[in-house]
Amino acid sequence: xxxxxxxxxxxxxxxxxxxxxxxxxxxxxxxxxxxxxxxxxxxxxxxxxxxxxxxxxxxxxxxxxxxxxxxxxxxxxxxxxxxxxxxxxxxxxxxxxxxxxxxxxxxxxxx
Amino acid sequence: xxxxxxxxxxxxxxxxxxxxxxxxxxxxxxxxxxxxxxxxxxxxxxxxxxxxxxxxxxxxxxxxxxxxxxxxxxxxxxxxxxxxxxxxxxxxxxxxxxxxxxxxxxxxxxxxxxxxxxxxxxxxxxxxxxxxxxxxxxxxxxxxxxxxxxxxxxxxxxxxxxxxxxxxxxxxxxxxxxxxxxxxxxxxxxxxxxxxxxxxxxxxxxxxxxxxxxxxxxxxxxxxxxxxxxxxxxxxxxxxxxxxxxxxxxxxxxxxxxxxxxxxxxxxxxxxxxxxxxxxxxxxxxxxxxx
Lengths: 111, 291
Fold this sequence. Notes:
The complex is a heterodimer.
Chain A: E1 2-5, E2 19-20, E3 26-28, H1 36-44, E4 49-52, H2 59-62, H3 70-80, H4 92-108
Chain B: H1 11-21, H2 26-36, H3 42-50, H4 53-64, H5 77-84, H6 86-98, H7 112-132, H8 139-147, H9 150-158, H10 160-173, H11 177-185, H12 189-199, H13 204-211, H14 223-239, H15 254-260, H16 266-286
Helix pairs in contact in B: 1-9, 1-12, 2-3, 2-6, 3-5, 4-5, 5-6, 6-8, 7-8, 7-14, 7-16, 8-13, 9-10, 9-12, 10-11, 12-13, 13-14, 14-15
């Protein structure tokens, strides 16, 4: 299981743990299969992510949007290496930032 | 190194020189006094703001921007004060007026457009991170982000030669600007900026995060705010949203990251939310009076 951001959640996914709103009120219990209505309610109450069954937590880092060429992405990562050479590149947050930066470079032609 | 033509650059000296030449508009002090005075009304506050037409226009545009998500149109400052709150409006007024203070910096030292873009992006992202963490009074984070690199401007105005040498050294050695500052000056732009804000009597909730944003462990009072600015700065550097003097992504302080209790996956969401706001706020704040 792993946290999935709201925009990547699809109907039919199954919750691995309870979902709470911003003030801690429970909205939906673990094990529920998500419907479109649930997603609307999550958004209404400001839920930004949910724990989804069967999603490895590293999963989102491996996801590449279909319109992105993996080779181009690798090239973009290569290009960004000097920018990141002074920071702690093994930290999960920095890994994520590098991933986003490389994706942006490929998709928009700039970072 | 060859920095001896100038009197030694210490934080105290630089702040002293800068604060005699550049001062926050007198109006900020008056606004602050009025807001802190227990018997002043919203009318008193809006009267002071409306004396400055450029600022009034910018504040109104800010109040109407999606940042505040207000459905009804905000057409008077009095209404803006009611919606945004006096403390927050003061913070915004500070942000809007500080941009006009520093002028005449040679383009090859700091491109001010790009510099302010970096600062505004940092402010907006820090604000979004704070919203995500359900903090209250998020405007102070916007302002702290806006001002986080003000030390770079101080150095560039007070000691352009030193600033230029640091930039050249950065190009030649590939080291971080931040580390070069520490190595050659004995302090960095964060500490310098923090000292100036203190001199300007800006509250510590804004001053400390600025002073400690490259060394979050040294913050004593406002650790969370400092961690937010630290992270927001790193995000901006990673995405190259505008440019200050720094060319690389500075190291992430792990205790600061842990303090925020965020999952790395959220960074993309926060960034996506912030991006349109950055463009909008940038055009609001840079359009009009100065630029």
